[in-house]
Write a sequence for this structure.
């Protein structure tokens, strides 16, 4: 019985309408409480769960924090004039974003 490939798919959890107010849209409010403070959501599983959880999760979280905080300290981000931001994606084995435009203005 060897040779069977099993692929986990967290889409059913990450887009669960009973867990998220707007599951198909980017909504930072999913992670903020009434006072605007961060709240952890058990339904958010970026690194999987259980015994097979990603061993590099802590390193990845630290690296992402350093990378994005450095960008946000140095630039102001916005969409170009007349361009409406969109979260459309191409569906495949993963959700790949459509090409988009972004302005990064040095602070």
């Amino acid at each position: 019985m060897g040779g069977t490939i099993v692929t986990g798919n967290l889409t059913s959890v990450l887009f669960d309408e009973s867990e998220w107010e707007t599951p198909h849209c980017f909504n930072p409010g999913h992670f903020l409480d009434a006072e605007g403070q961060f709240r952890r959501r058990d339904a958010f599983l970026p690194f999987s769960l259980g015994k097979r959880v990603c061993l590099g999760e802590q390193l990845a979280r630290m690296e992402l924090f350093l990378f994005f905080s450095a960008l946000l300290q140095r630039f102001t981000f916005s969409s170009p004039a007349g361009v409406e931001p969109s979260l459309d994606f191409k569906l495949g084995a993963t959700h790949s974003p459509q090409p988009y435009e972004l302005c990064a203005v040095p602070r």
Summary: The chain has a mean pLDDT of 80. The two ends are 59 Å apart (CA to CA). The longest helix spans residues 57-74. The helical segments are 11-14, 57-74.
